Amino acid sequence: MGTRPWVAACFLLPALALLGALVVYPIGYSVYRSLFDASGNGFVGFDNYQEVFTDDRIRTALKNNIIWVIVAPSVATALGLIFAVLTERVRWGTAFKLVVFMPMAISMLAAGIIFRLVYEQNPERGVANAMWVGIHDTFSEPAPYPGAHPRPGARLGADGGAFTTRAAAAAASPVALPLVAVKPVDLKGAADAVPAREVAGKVTGTVWRDFTRGGGGTEGVIDRGEKALKGVKVEAVKGHRTVATATTAADGTFTLPAAADGARLRLPAANFAAHYNGVDWLGPSLVTPAIISAYIWMWAGFAMVLIAAGLASVPRELLEAARVDGATEWQVFRRVTVPLLAPVLAVVLITLMINVLKIFDLVYIIAPGASLDKANVLALQLYQSSFGTDVNQGVGSAIAVFLLLLVLPVMLVNIRRIRKERQR
Questions:
Q1: Any idea of the CA torsion for 117, 121, 126, 130, to the nearest 10 degrees?
Q2: Where are the transmembrane segments (predicted)?
Q3: What is the domain partition of the chain in residue ranges?
Q4: Could you tell me which of 350, 346, 311, 347 has the C-alpha nearest to residue 332?
Q5: Helix 393-423 vs helix 25-33: crossing angle, to nearest 10
Q6: Termini Cα distance of the chain
Q7: Residues 6+ apart with CB under 8 A from 53
Q8: What is the tens place of the pLDDT at every residue in 221-280?
Q9: What is the 3-state secondary structure of 375-409?
Q10: 125-151, pLDDT tens digit by residue?
Q11: How many CA atoms lie within 13 A of 75 on its CB side?
């Protein structure tokens, strides 16, 4: 109020100097540097910007940035809205908000390390695959002896993972089906194998691990101490038709009906298929959605807290009036709550959009080397172009200027919204 301009300038000078040194000068120098080649000596004009739009890696990064800007802020804001509304109706809402907001206290680096372990391919280490494999195995029974196969010379031919006897089986003549390469862990509690007994009019046989610890024993013969393979499915096949099936008992023996007489015996591939190992979350096709999920885990709490603060200021009289007029809870939410929260939702959405345009840490840490190009984003490509193996700070500066141009429209929309709110 009545302060002389030079006095105001003296107070603003330190802040303006700091702003100029940390913001204005770097922006100006980046624009200048983007017009020169990798050495910084040769003027190339807009060639670096042309490379930004023609290089395959940078185009992939741009495509991924578009996916990030559309998906991550929208899903995080929607989850924040749902959490904020639902937690108003439960007694333990404060505790729930604390749990959801807690990831915000973790740095991007730490979150990246956490989710790199979560998405680990090995189900014994990766939480995501441990859950996925558990669900899969609930509805699809795993193979009893993955990786097992007949002993060479056992007169069994391989066909697409299945093994079929070369000779037809005869009733009352037991068939020996010796297997090797059975993992010890799959034989826990297994009983000793016994030779199958002859049964008139029926085909019998034994499936066992033809291996004696310490060596010795006779190939193709059930020696003392050799283990039975329980639960192996055996099929009798005539031509291309399965005429009978049986499953081996605890002692490895099986019995097929008279229809199997003269048929060849087949051990289906399902007996020996490798265990389901889950989803390749960090493979080329799923790496970007997986990283976006990690980002949403971190920032949904931020959206929830801001929206909950806006929800607390919503006049309860309007909500009650809508209910008195006969509106359902869904109509109250869609027609009253969401419109009243529109300014807050816009703040959250715009803030997250600006944030994802600069995303770097999560992608750099979570994506493995084989999938890094598929998960690439502009901020990461800026780093790789400026300081990576093929250093070209001209291209890196061009990417930085391009990122600035992408952020500016979002910032201008946010500034206009703030000015309108001040005028109300």
A1: 160
A2: 66-86, 98-119, 294-314, 340-367, 395-415
A3: 28-125+281-423, 149-271
A4: 311
A5: 140
A6: 23
A7: 59
A8: 898 889 999 999 999 999 889 999 999 999 999 999 999 999 999 999 989 888 788 889
A9: CCCHHHHHHHHHHCCCCCHHHHHHHHHHHHHHHHH
A10: 889 998 988 888 888 778 889 989 898
A11: 16
Choose among 23, 30, 36: nearest CA to 400.
30
pLDDT score of 236: 93
Alpha-carbon gap, residue 289 to 285, rounded angstroms: 9
Residue type, 371: S
DSSP 140: S
Q: Which residues of the chain have pLDDT under 70?
A: 1-3, 424
Quick check: 298 and 112 in contact, CB under 8 A?
no
Task: Give the pairing of strands 203-209 and 175-180.
Answer: parallel
Q: Which superfamily does CATH assign the domain made up of 28-125+281-423 to?
A: MetI-like (1.10.3720.10)
Neighbour count for residue 31 (Cβ, 10 Å):
14
How far apart CA 151 and CA 182 sit, in angstroms, is 11
Q: What is the pLDDT of residues 53-69, one digit of tens each?
A: 888 888 999 999 999 99
